Structure formats: structure tokens, C-alpha cells
Amino acid sequence: MKTKLSEINKSIPEVSLVICSSSFERRWFQITKNLSPKSLDLIVILQKSIENPAWKEGITAIKSIHGDIYQALDIEKLSPKHTWIKFVQEIVPLIKKQDNLTLIDITTFTHETVAFFTSMIKLYKLESKVRFAYAGASSYMTSNEERDWWLSRGVKDIRSILGFPGVIRPSQGSHLIILVGFEIERAKELIIQYEPSSISLGIGTDAYSQDFFEKNNWYRNQIQSFIETVNTTIKNVSKFEFSCSDPISAKNSILAEANKFNNFNITLAPMNTKVSTIAAASAALENEDLKLCYVEPLEYNRTYYSTPGDTLTLIHL
């Protein structure tokens, strides 16, 4: 469900627990800041780097509205496996004991963390106790200088997401599905490293703004041009559409596209909105042949990444 961030308290039942992630983006605290303090008992912040102005601004805003009811869960130096274990040991029991709703703010989670939480909520059958929330941006790459028009640079690692291994059949070819976003460098490196037999490039519709859709389409065309110019094993490039903002619709689109290539080993790379990453994880849980992968960047554009908007998406798994 899409609504306005400023109307969040009219859109969901009473919330007693919030889980969010610190970030260099000011969006990390917008949802928590707008929540009514009436029923809120605890705010758990997945803590990464705090050496940035957005962290200090966010903590100041949270304390002024909600007091000192927050606690940090440090995951910065943990491996994916130990991050998952920490979530299961510390987050799951917290959710289970809540009388009211738990709100999981995925806005500044990594795509990998979004997949973890989607899997975890389904595995422990916590759907009735949880809502996911995503605060949209009003703009990305906010600098006036063209040299600063990037969101991330370089690739640190490409890995399968824990819990989404897919099924590998050595006798079959490989197919790569990319939910295209703005981070073209990561997509290019993924294609080079995976060397798939064929590829599907997904373009997001129902975007949070027409400008986002047009940029997204431009990046998809850039990736297709890249595929055509490099010497790869790719024999076929197909295109499909999925919703950026409706996870059920997006999941169905992903499953339909994957079904066209059911004689291949399929890897799915969610690189669009976090809402569509929930859809990708849900699709991979429904069709266990799908392997989910994460492309970890070397660096983010911490200064000009985004500005907060007033669009809120609420998701009930």
C-alpha cells in the first residue's frame, strides 16, 4: 500500500517495536521520526558507520520525539552468516514477544538484508506480527555536477544470498535476471563475472516518479548496449516489466519471467527498489530453483546519494 509518510499513523495499527538501519542517507530515520510515540516501546537500530551527519541528525530527532528507547545492534563487521544468526537470536525473540505490531523499516537496508528479513519472517511465521515500510526518495544523485552523478562505485564482492541457493544442474545453461536500478557499474560487473547463456533485463514500472522511470529505462538501455559490445557468451537478451512499488505484482512478474527459462540455472539479482527486493526474495522462496545474488559495492556516494520524499510503502507479507 502506498501512502504519504506524513500519514503513517493513520495507515497502520499501533506499533510497539521498530527495526531500522543507520545510514549516511537522511531517509534512515524519516519513518521512525513520523511515528506516534504513544505505543512505541523500543527502536532497534542496525548500526553500521556512525561517522556521518545523517546519524547525528537522526539520533537527535529520534531522542527528541521518543526519548532514549533505542538500542543499537552492531552488524558492521559481521559476515552474512553471522548477521543471519544475530538476527535469529536477537530480533526474532523481540518480535515474538510484542503485543502490538513490529514495523521493519527497510529503507536503508542492503538488498541482502532485505532478503534475510523476508526469509526470516516467513520461516518463523511472523507475518501477522510484522509490517515492512519503505520511505521513497524525492531525488537521487543530488549534485549539480555531472562527475557526482553516481550512487555506488566498484564491486567488492558478488555472492549468493544465504538461504537462497537455488538449484544447480550442471547439464543446463545459466540465465541471469537483473531487476535493473541506477547502479550500472554493479550490473556490468555481475554480467562479466557470471557469463550467463542468456539474460533478462527487468525495467521497473509504477515508479515513485516519472523521472525515476526514465532514468531506469536509460540505464537498462545502457546495460543492453554494454552486453552487445563485450565479448560474452550471452546468446539472448530479453526484457520484461515489474512493479517498483507493488511487491505482489512484482513477484508475479519475476516468476512469469523465470518460467520462460525453466530449463536453465537461474540467478536473480535484485538491484532496484527495496520493495522489489522483497518481491525477488518472495519469488525465490516460492520457486526454489531461483538463486538470489547480491553485488556488494566498494563505495557509496555518501554526499549526494538521495533526498527524502513523502512517499511511504507499507507491505504485509
Question: Can you describe this structure in just a few lines?
Answer:
This protein is an alpha/beta fold.
Strand order of the biggest β-sheet:
1-13-6-5-2-3-4
Rg is 19 Å
By CATH reckoning, the class of the largest domain would read: Alpha Beta
Helical content class: 25-40%
Query: Structural class of the secondary structure composition?
Result: alpha/beta
Put simply, the count of helices is 9
Going by CATH, the architecture of the largest domain would be 3-Layer(aba) Sandwich
Oligomer: single chain
| CATH fold-level assignment of the largest domain | Rossmann fold
Number of strands: 13
Question: Biggest sheet, in brief?
Answer: 7 strands, mixed
Mean pLDDT: 91
Percent range for β-strand residues: 25-35%
Q: Give, in order, the helices and strands.
A: EHEHEHEHEHEEEHEHEHEHEE
Number of domains: 2
What spatial form do the alpha-carbon principal axes imply?
Answer: globular
* Low-confidence segments: none
First-to-last CA distance: 12 Å
